[in-house]
Design goal:
two-stranded antiparallel ribbon; 62 residues; binds iron/sulfur cluster
Length: 62
């Protein structure tokens, strides 16, 4: 089982771009008015999860 990667809940995301600013891997982009994590780039650091003001990001094991 791999490490959990960040996953955005599109229903909760406010498109504030906060997670995009803090991701050290540039693994998050805005797509269709919500943040989207490119799991191939994500290193599971969880910084985005701690940054999101509405708790829209969680860890998911792929
Ligand atoms: S867990 Fe870290 S590397 Fe992965 S998307 Fe969030 S900030 Fe970027
Ligand atoms: S920090 Fe949260 S609300 Fe802001 S763009 Fe990222 S997922 Fe959406």
């Amino acid at each position: 089982m791999g490490k959990p990667k960040a996953k955005v809940d599109g229903e909760k995301c406010l498109a504030c771009s906060g997670c995009i600013s803090v991701c050290p891997q540039d693994a998050i982009s805005m797509c269709g008015g919500r943040a989207f994590v490119m799991v191939d780039k994500c290193i599971s650091c969880a910084i985005c999860i701690q940054t999101c003001p509405v708790g829209a990001i969680s860890g998911e094991v792929y």
